[in-house]
Amino acid sequence: MYYGLDAHKAFIQVCELSDDGRRRKDYPIGATAEALEAFAERLGPSDHVVLEATFHTWAIHSILTRRAGSVTVANPYEVRAIAKARVKTDKIDAYILAQLLRTGFLPAV
Q1: d(CA 92, CA 70)
Q2: Which domain holds residue 61?
Q3: Mind listing the pLDDT tens digit for each residue in 6-43?
């Protein structure tokens, strides 16, 4: 499973993709340590997570790497150049991150 996370101060938008790229779910989680721990409990070694570098990226990364198979931090400027969207929403950002990770086109930090 691939998870794209669009992190904000108050919440994190999550997009779940199956291994073949089908969108499974979109949902927000809290941007607290407790909410991230609960999210991480659902992850396993075959799961891959991506989020853009922001002000609290490394705290999120630290929590998720305990459970996920991989956690990738994307360069937000390069992601924007690759995936310019006319309509920008948190769901679209999370989806684009997950697809870029799944297809191997993600510019990591």
Answers
A1: 21
A2: 2-103
A3: 999 999 999 999 999 999 999 999 999 999 999 999 99
